[in-house]
Write a structure and sequence with these properties.
0% of the residues lie in helices and 56% in strands. The protein has 122 residues and is mostly beta strands. The chain has one domain: Beta Barrel (Thrombin, subunit H), CATH 2.40.10.220. A six-stranded antiparallel barrel has the order 2-3-4-7-6-5. A hairpin with a 2-residue loop joins β2 and β3. It is globular.
Length: 122
C-alpha cells in the first residue's frame, strides 16, 4: 500500500546538479518523478548520501524563455540504475525539496527570480 504523504507526478524533465555540499559541480540528468517535497532523478555520478544538494529543473525546455526551478535539498537515498545500453553507470537519486525559487529570463536575456519559498515539512 502506498504510504507517501504527497502525490508524485511522473515527469521526465532536464535536471542539472549545480552543487553537492560545498562543492560546485556540473551533473546533468532527467527527473523520474516530482512531488511537493522531493524529486527522483537519474544522473551519471554516485552522490553523497545525506549531503546537501542544489539542483535546477527546467520546466519548459522547448520554449524560447524556459522557466527554471532552482532547488535546495538533501540526498535521502540512491541506487545504481538499470543500464539501458549496458555501458554507462547511472544512479537513481532521491532528494528532498526544502527551498526553491522560480527563475525566468526576461526579454533582454537577464535572469530574474520571480518567486521563492521554503517548503514546510510536517
Amino acid at each position: 500500500m502506498e504510504q507517501r504523504r504527497t502525490r508524485r507526478f511522473q515527469l521526465e524533465l532536464p535536471v542539472s546538479v549545480t552543487r553537492t555540499g560545498a562543492v560546485r559541480t556540473a551533473l546533468a540528468g532527467k527527473t523520474r518523478n516530482i512531488s511537493s517535497t522531493g524529486v527522483l532523478f537519474i544522473a551519471g555520478r554516485e552522490p553523497d548520501l545525506g549531503g546537501s544538494i542544489e539542483y535546477i529543473i527546467t520546466l519548459n525546455d522547448d520554449s524560447p524563455h524556459p522557466v527554471q526551478l532552482r532547488c535546495v535539498g538533501k540526498i535521502v537515498r540512491f541506487a545504481q540504475a538499470v543500464s539501458t545500453n549496458g555501458e554507462e553507470k547511472s544512479y537513481e537519486i532521491a532528494a528532498t525539496l526544502e527551498r526553491y525559487e522560480f527563475v525566468r529570463e526576461n526579454p533582454s536575456g537577464r535572469r530574474m527570480v520571480t518567486s521563492a519559498a521554503t517548503v514546510p515539512h510536517p
